Every structure is written in C-alpha cells, then in structure tokens.
Amino acid sequence: MKPTTLMLAMATAMALALPGLALAHDHSDHGAPAAATSSAAPASAYYKGLRGDYHAAQARWWKGNTHTHTWWSDGDSPPENVAAWYREHGYQFLVLSDHNRMQQDSIARGTLALSYSQWYPIEDDARRDALETYRKHFGQDWVQTRTSDKGVTEVRLKTLDEFRHFFEAPGEFAFISGEEITDSYQSNPFHMNAVNVHEIIQPRNGATSAQVIQNNLNAVLDQGARSGRDVLAHINHPNFRYGITVEDILPLRYATGEGFFELYNGHHGVENYGDAHRMGLEKMWDVILAKRIAEGDGALMYGIANDDAHSYTRWEVGANANPGRGWVMVRANRLTPDSIVGAMKEGDFYATTGVTLATLESADNQVSLEIEAEPGVEYTVEFIGTRRGTDLRGRPARDLPADLQGRASMRYSDAIGVVLDTQHGTTARYTAKGDELYVRARITSTKPHPNPFKAGDTQMAWTQPLLVTARR
Ligand SMILES: [Zn+2]
Ligand SMILES: [Zn+2]
C-alpha cells in the first residue's frame, strides 16, 4: 500500500469515528473530557459496538479466510461450529460464503442451497456428528431442534447477527459478511465471492461467459457504491470442472483494485495445477497480468488463497474440503470489514498455504521480504515476471482429445511468467531492471503441508504483483 493512501484512509476513518466518539462522551454521566476517558470503560464499550479495534495506530498483519461453507448451503456443519474452528486456529477474520445465501433469511434462487428453510434436516452420520459437536460446544439451550412430520430431527440455523457475539472481539476476530454467487454459463460453473456485501445478490447470468462474470462483478460493485462500503469480488476456482478460461477473464472491465481471483483454492476438486491440456492457475495469473499491463488498461489482478472448506467432521486429503489449506494475510490498521477489504483493494496482502512473512516491502521497482523462519525448514524465493516485448498472443489448442471434459484456454508462450531470479534463505530482494512488466514473488518451503490440496504439497506463499515502471 502506498503510505499516502494509508494515511488518507486512516484520517478518513478517524474523522468518521470521531463524531460518534464525542457523542458517547457527551452522554456519559461523568462529563469528563474525552481525552481523559479514552481508555476507560465507556470508551471500550463503545469500541466493542463497532466490532473492531479502533485503537491501532500501526498497520499489522491479519490472518483470514474469504471462502467458507456452512449448513446454510453445502457445508457439513452449522455456522457456529465453522466459526469456532477458525477462531481456535488463529484466524482473525472470516467470510462465511454460502452458495447464493447469506446467514440470514433471504435466499437467492440458484443451486446448492440444500435447505430452503432455516430448518436443517439431520439425515446422515456427518450431520449427526456435527449436531453433537454443536450441542457440546454451545449448549442444549442454544441449539434449537424440532421433529418433522417424517420423524426427522431438524435444527434451526441461526443468523450471523444471532451468533456473531460468540466470536467477535475488538482486534481479535471479525466476520466479514459475504456470499458465493453461484452462477453458470451453459453447463460450466461460474462462481464468484462477494465480500462485505450485506444484501443477497442473485446470480446475474449473461449471454457470454465473460458477461456472466462481468454482470456478477458489476452487481457486487454497485452494492458497494450504494452502501458506501469497501466491497470486493473474487473469481473462484477457474479450473473447477475447467469452467472458466483465461479468455473469459481477459475482457473484464476492472478499475484499479477490483481484480481478484483464487490463485489457490483448497477444495480437492478444483484443479489448481491444471492438467496435460490446460494451464494451472499461476500460469493463468501471469497471462492475465502480462496482457492487462501490456495491452489493456493496466489494472492488476490480485491472487487469493483460501480453503473453500465444506467439511469439518471428516478429514482426508483428496476426499474432503477441509479448512486451513490456504488463507490470506492482510496488512491493515484495524480489524474491521472496511479496513481489511480496503487494504486488499490496495494489494496489501499475500496468499499463503503456511509460509509467514515477517516483512514485505514492494515499491519503487523493488520487492524485498523476510520469512518467519521455522527450525529445520529451507526456503526458496523465486521472483517471477514477464518481460516487455514477450509474444503475448494466444494460439488455439488444436490437440485436445474429443472427450475432454470442460473447456480449455488458448496456449501462450513459455516466456510469460518466467523465473527472473531464484534466491535461497529467509531474506530475498529483487530490483527490477526495467524490462519487466511486473514482478511477483513465490516462496516455496521444504515443510510438508499438514493437510494439502494435493498430497505431497509443501507450504508456500505468493506476494501480489508489483507493476514495474520502465527505465528510460
Ligand atoms: Zn465454488
Ligand atoms: Zn465455495
């Protein structure tokens, strides 16, 4: 993030917060001046009402996941069990992103909302296990059940506003409301997460694949403009059933800070790495970046890692979408939805599957970073980019088998997304020569991922791309 932007954002947030602060003190019984009571009980109660830490003077890193499912759609546990997992595992923010539903009464049309009421049927062992955990953690008096006409136990799903008080605390944990807009084009899945939206968004559909994405993106951004909130939309798992190609994403109209996609999704069915005929998501990222910068309006695409967790009662690599496989670290002053999303729109975050950065600086044609080293673990940092003048043309893939499932992007030059430099150790620095369009860092550790997307994966991290200014 540019320091000037950060300062401006801080000043704006403080200006917005101050009138309310003054009001709270004006109405206090003590009538003490605001400065004298700033750390006393009434002020902290006021801050708690804001569901965020408004004391923080300096930016710090916050760990969060922007893609998670619960019983509100096809997750295997009630939202309280899900939130508890993340809270217990060191996350500070969480987006519960159910398919075409938020954790409230409203239901969008579309697929995968398994239960069309707030009463959720307990029909199998996984659900019985989840119900048992739910009762054990939250108590008999919290869990509401009834028996249907057919004799099936049903649980009443609580809304986000009913259960958020269990988890949220200033500077410790915050929910950011959201939804996975679950749309399709022909038979291909087109999913997009809307983050920090507060009203359900109906899948918008479209006459072409690119239009489906653009129409849903516009719906998210329109709600942001209407509400005055910082919202973002990220394109999900492009290689899930190979539904979304690089050519679907290229024509999208973005303003700066509006391009996000899942570089890494922890669901075992999403083909992050591609196959013999289709590119992996890192290559897709490089093609999009190179073409947007060299041929388009230069708006960057940011890469997100998340787990897209569905399964909290069954744990198995390759069979269950478990939590904790990937997440983002966001640098922001405050743990509030607007502050976190605002920082992400500035590109001030990185994606990780386990590697943590102690420092990350990215400005003035230079990227430097330091890794929080773990004993016995080795790290390789690769700086990746595309040089100016590289052939960016796509060529139709002509050798595809007739029975290939899904769709295929065009083929692009191997010179797109090349390793510019490789460094070993816990610190790394790259100074651009000026012939690169952008540069980004990929960190690979030797530490096995405890529950990876694919068996054998080691822990990694990816920084956001730095736009390189050409030397004259
Ligand atoms: Zn999805
Ligand atoms: Zn999902």
Describe this protein's structure.
With 472 residues, the protein is of the alpha+beta class. It has two domains: 1-49, no CATH class; 50-118 and 157-467, TIM Barrel (Alpha-Beta Barrel), CATH 3.20.20.140. The protein has helices at 3-26, 41-49, 79-88, 125-138, 160-163, 209-227, 246-249, 281-294, 337-345, and strands spanning 60-65, 93-94, 119-121, 145-147, 153-156, 174-175, 178-185, 188-195, 232-235, 259-265, 301-306, 327-332, 349-352, 357-363, 366-371, 379-387, 418-424, 427-431, 436-448, 458-463, 466-467. The strands form five sheets. Strands 1, 2, 6, 12, 13, 16, 17, 19, 20 and 21 form a ten-stranded mixed beta sheet that branches. Strand 10 (259-265), helix 8 (281-294) and strand 11 (301-306) form a beta-alpha-beta unit. The radius of gyration is 23 Å and the shape is globular. Mean pLDDT is 87; it is low at 1-53 and 110-114. Bound molecules: zinc ion (2 copies). One zinc ion binds at residues 67, 69, 180, 308. The site of one zinc ion has 4 residues, from loops.
Quick overview of this protein structure:
The protein has nine helices and 21 strands.
Which key terms come to mind for this protein?
TIM Barrel, disordered N terminus, 472 residues, alpha+beta, three-stranded antiparallel beta sheet, 21 strands, 2 domains, 23% helix, binds zinc ion
